[in-house]
Automatic annotation (TrEMBL):
Its EC number is 3.4.11.-. This is Aminopeptidase. Residues 596-910 form the ERAP1-like C-terminal domain. The lineage of its organism: Eukaryota, Metazoa, Spiralia, Gnathifera, Rotifera. It is an enzyme of class 3 (hydrolase). GO terms for molecular function: alanyl aminopeptidase activity; metalloaminopeptidase activity; peptide binding; zinc ion binding. It comes from Rotaria sordida.
Amino acid sequence: MNTFIKRTQVLYRVISINFVDLSFTPSISSSSSSSSSAYFLLNNKTKRFQSTHIKLKMTGRNTQEAKPLFQRLPQSIVPTHYDLTIQPYLDTFKFNGDVNIHIKVKEPTNNIVLYAAELEVDNAKLKSTSNNEQGGKIDYDKEGERITVNFDKKLETGDYQLALKFAGEISSRMRGFYRNKYTAPDGNEVRHGASTQFEPADCRRAFPCWDEPNFKATFDITLITPKNLRAISNMPIKAENEYANDKEWKITKFDRTPVMSTYLVAYVVGEYDYIETKDSNGVSMKVYTPLEKKEHGQFALDTAAKVLPFYAEYFNIKYPIAKADQIAISDFAMGAMENWGLITYRETALLIDPKFSSMDTRQRVAIVVAHELAHQWFGNLVTMDWWTDLWLNEGFATWIEYLAVDKCYPEFDIWTQFVADTFARFLIPDALKSSHPIEVPIGHPAEIDEIFDAISYSKGSSVIRMLHDYIGDDAFRKGLHNYLTEYSYKNTVTENLWSHLAKASNKPVNEVMSSWTLQMGYPLLTVTEEQTNKNRVVKIKQQRFIADGSADDENLQWKIPITVFTKSNAKKIAQQTLMDKPEITMTLENVSENDWFKLNYNSIGLYRVKYESQTLARLNEPIANKTLSPQDRLMVQNDVAALCNAGHQSFVDYLKLLPSYTDEDNFTVWKSIASNMGDLSSLLEYTDYFNKFKQYRLNLFSSIQNKLGWDAKPNEDPLSAMLRPMILGIVGKSGDQNVIDEAKKRFERHIAGDLIDPDIRGAVYVIVSRYGDESTQEALRKLYVAADMTEEKVRLLRSMGQSIKPEIIENTLKFVFEGDNVRMQDSISGLVGCTASRDGRDLVWKFLQKNWTTLVERFGEKSNFLIAFVEYGLSDFADEKTASEIKEFFETMNTPIVARPVKKVLETIHMRSEVLKRDSKAIEEYLKRHQQQ
Ligand SMILES: [Zn+2]
């Protein structure tokens, strides 16, 4: 699965660029129904967690509540096949269904327990192989989302078929079998379709089933639908006939699926156009789009046709089924979902308008398509045994999506972007005390939603990248192939991959990896140096890096693959070692007194580095002359910023370092700088010298802005097309009058029909929204209503709240949340826009307090959007008073899913307020001196 909004961290918050939605990863939070220490004991991997020498710390879990223990379904009855028929009624939003489940009873029993939620189930009948039939009586366990079918006569071991009839509602909450709203091509008439989203545990809302990933079975799916609608499912259509009971309806039967988990079942009913092709191995591929927009599917189709054969070759396993379809669903909570053979996407993650989509949307689509296609093997063919190993599924897909995009679109230089977007991204939440290990023991399914977060995706993929580098590509591919082959159509656990990789590489994979997957956080390496004649003696100490600079009480330690390189051979690793103690010493030979050295070649190791001031100062030169790779250039300043936040250094050091980047021209390096500057901006907004800081920011970004200008150069690379709007946005928000005037001019021409280049359009919207008045807002709202492309709508939504006028921000919040102007899944983009200013943050906080109960009702108490509202809406404060208000408010609200996000927010605010207390005076003095020069 690919979750939804990418915040490009702070970039977005203050400087707010063309950020692309998707890949939002709500973070872990504690759940009301969790009593995790007890759940642990029921998990079949308990032993692993107990025997490991690593101390597991499960902070934030709610251990006091005495709810009944969660137990997975027993293995004494297993399903092998489902015959499933569904008939949806889109006028009443109801559906009927019947299912005939082939089961094996392995121990004699009087009842059968399976999952069903929000369904009326009746007419239970059990047939044995000898055709003996008996009826069953159904008991509901609403809380446990299960039914028990009780029989008078004891069932002996053997094969049976369990038939059930059921009915349910096509819901509005974007999970289970739910409705999709769209307008007819005429732009007026509102129509509905329906589609499924089952991961992690919502298949049970669509039909009764063994809804756990390790009960794999085959599925014969039949849909009964009105004739004018398309009926689509995982597999190709086997037969389509008129429905005997009503000739306005048809009955569509699909081929049998492979053996697979319930969370991967999918069916969609609605009006769609499509385009199609075959990949180089003959796999049939379609991209389904809204009516009359089939050309918007071309880019995704082309990408998929390149990526699918790439994976087949990389894994050395052919794509397992006959088709690989993709479809854009109008109402979609996540970014995309890897249902086998029918991948569902939100529109902005799949559709590219050849004329009006921006370059970063293209890049994003390529990435999401590559992510979902990787799951067709890693996840679908070989599936985690239980959600505890979800991180491996998501971390792996997130790593290999970059490998595939790099292969198909080298012009995106995507591995460099990995460091800024994925690697540097988890380093922030994982430094909080409220973080969690990537391998989290999951008991109750309610805990599953908690782990679709930056730790699972971003840290998971960074760990895989480090491992890939540690054992090398040949061993990695070989081990991976063996693993995927051995566990095809089966379930597995993380260690099984490690042991195949260990065998293929002859390296202690399990030992090295467990320190990264079973404990939270990551190390800070403190480096001290001494010159002895021609050699540099380097001492390295490890300790957990904690965001606010506090000491690690638990004294966590890691096994760290370390690399060092030096000036004399800047493109090669000089020394490498596996650091497996608290402290090591390395001697770098033939390094003269003025030569620089640096740890972590290309920023592959999962650690931050703290150098002594002279060691850091020597790096100015290879940064300025770009001897260091972009990955390394960006991480030097990223580490310094984090060390400043933690109080290891003063932020003045960061401001002094940045001038080395004045001539920087790499998109990704600027993205990382912009992100850190955004953070700092949102903090210094609470001081009375903020204007001086804006001047500093303007100076920093001016030369690159002059270089890039407003308009694309002929044959420009795609990275410049992405850098330009980012820089324009920053410079505009820093008050550059020329840029502001030009943006206003272009906006006026835009409204008159001379359209702005889609690459810079988002930046223009933000600038005019910020400096404009009510009439500008009116114009933005009109554009929003008129836009028929979701990408454009989201661009507009993000800009609206970025005004500096409080009444406009208030109106934006109303526009986003009241009435039905904005789809539920897009409201977060509107909200985040409003947090771009100090006043806006206050208004968002007031809004959330006033409307929290309504939001919980509308989105559902388990919705990931609630997490996003809290994390994105409230993290940017910098005072303890607001922190305690937030704490008190959520203590009275009792919304368990945001318990951990609230902790994260409080920790972040505390850290920010400490930075202000500690460094504010010195920053002010530095800025004064700096600007007098
Ligand atoms: Zn995924």
